[in-house]
Queue: 4 jobs
Job 1
Amino acid sequence: MSVEIDVPFTPDPSFRSYLIVVTALSMLVPVFFFGFMAVVMMEDGGVALAVMAGIFLVLALAGGIWAYLFYDTVRYLLTTTEMTWGRGILWKQTGIVPYNRITNVDIIQGPLMRLFGISNLRIQTAGYSANQLAEIKLQGIRDPEPLRGVIMDFVRSGYPVAAVTGAEMPAGPASTVPLPSGGMAADAAVLQELRDIEAVLKRIEEKMQ
């Protein structure tokens, strides 16, 4: 999967079909429940089956419409310092995960996802890893290995990665990175302040003797 830094991207288009199928299948649980109630309350088994089929069609259609619209709300973004995400139809959700909090990136692919050729990237952070929970999931990713590689390159090195997925900028040891001039000036100012304090303390000590 090709991803550009600082450019939002969406899940693979097949993720929309996957969501529709999963949502439709999840409707079977309430259908069986209402169907059982219909069988108990109705003497005619044919009518009960018709009721079950009708309920399933209504719920599956509603769930399919929701899944279709939900796909259009999912957005991800990689920058040189953090990941951001957003999703939601009625209730919008957004989040930011800095790379320096990420501890691991796992690739998850169930049987149905394998059928559609997509995977999820489960992002674990320092605050969530103890419970084996993911703070964020990049869902519906086709060929997730390059994307995981880009994220982990940021996590390990802290160096920027080139604009196209898989193109890594060379990273050197931290000792070779020059300090900003502003930081050096601040250090010099602090050192001078400490010297001035030391001189004042010495004069006070001399007067007390």
Job 2
Amino acid sequence: MKYFDELKRSMEYLAGDPRTVFIGQAVAVPGTAMSNTLKDIPGHRLLELPVAEEMQMGMTTGLALAGQIPVSIFPRWNFLLCGLSQLINHLDKVQVMSNGGFKTKAIVRTGIGAERPLHPQHQHVGDYTQAIQAMCSTIEVIRLDEPEDIFPAYQRALLRDDGRSTLLVEYGDYYSEK
């Protein structure tokens, strides 16, 4: 099994649930390596957004509160940094702030930017997994190191019934290397 193939299989699995909606930049149009994992997802399930990461994460929380399962895609950690207020102060804390009255389930997908064959410079290759993990009290952060980690992690994120969201971290270099 290959890293990219497992990601594509996982996205198709998620799309099998009628509650999922895929949102972000380059989800309905090509533009990133992650776009290629969505090319067989029906177009009506893909919500293309402008470059507005804080708005995207706010929409993610809203969709989750409305009972949908957003798969919110930020191609690189460095982009997700712009949505951290919404991630840390809202999505992560909604269950705590509501004394368990609201439970949200969102799937947030991000990546450590590929450095090979061309290094895109440091604003695209950050890995903030440990820092974000330390800031989250309810969101589970999972780093996808090996191809065999991918499908079970996305399956767990979809099937979980504990009212928690999941943030999955991919490696851009592994799309073609593993």
Job 3
Amino acid sequence: MTEAVGQRLAAALAPLASLLALLVLWEAGVRWFEVDSFLLPPPSAIGAALLDSAGPLWDNSLYTLRTFAAGFGLSICVALPLAVLVTASRWLAAAIYPLLVLIQSIPKVALAPILIVAMGTSEAPRVVITFLVAFFPLVIATATGLLHTPPELLRLARSLRASALQRLLYIRLPHAVPFIFSGLKMSATLSVIGVVVAEFVAADRGLGYLMTSAMAFFNTPLAYAAMLLLSLISIAAFHGIGLLQALLFPWSTGQPNAAG
């Protein structure tokens, strides 16, 4: 028991020690080579910007989180049923899949100004851009999971006269859970990128907007502080989805003690 706790503690402290060493080297390197703060601010300057601009950073973070939640939530609502349709029949797959690839192939940075002209400068185009960035990986991951179901189980279910809906709910979806959550993790991190792309193009609030405004006035520490918060949002979303999977579907995490 003590050895297991020690191993977990060491595993938790190792990345923290690496991060601390990186920050120390960063701080020392900037000061030793006398790099101007507007080119590369030291961690101390970024920390000071976090404290000095806590109010604006908090307000813009909430705005970015709202757009992230709307776009990511919309991607879940569309991607999961779409993946079921794609895997329901070969005809539907042939009809829908090329359209998905076409949408995914469009550069979202180029699409953002077009959407803003078409939909106005409201929050709607930013949500749509976030959705477009996030939904494709979730569709592919979910479809892969649904198609990964062992065929012998499906044959057994048919022999027991299980309906298509029953096979989907009780066999295919449970086997697809690990794939779905992998897609959710990927889509969550991409959603943050989508929000920033949209806020770069046209926004009057948000962390992406704050970064462009800060760089326009060469306030690089504030831009780094906003970028740090964006990274924290992405990391929190990634690990939050992993925690949700461990709580709701512990058997799908692949951990040795998941069954216990």
Job 4
Amino acid sequence: MILACPQCHGLSRVPDDRLSDAPSCGRCKSPLFTGEPIELTAANFEAHAAKADLPLVVDFWAGWCGPCQSFAPVFSAAAAELEPGFRFGKLDTENQQALAARFAIRSIPTVMVIKGGKILGQQAGAMPKQAFAQWLKQFSP
């Protein structure tokens, strides 16, 4: 399986059966799984969304958005619990307007699951932890 590093965003190959063995990046030696969402930008988005094999769960959010702020702990808890089955990333729609426009984000928070550059699912609005976990189950590898 090809994984993008959350630190240097370089690609590393890891055998499927070794994902839970705390693999490290082949380039920068950082852990490939941190249990925390990564910050997605125009510079690193393609590595995680199109080149890596793990489904990428993206939280499109903004700092001024109340529902985004209330959903943030749910998203972070999911990252801690569900890695390495998924990669979790947050995309600030104010700072990354071109990416938000590319995905036609009209309401926030919007959560999207992307694999191989293709959108597998999309959900608008904040969700409670249980509902979010249930929604993600359909995309489990």
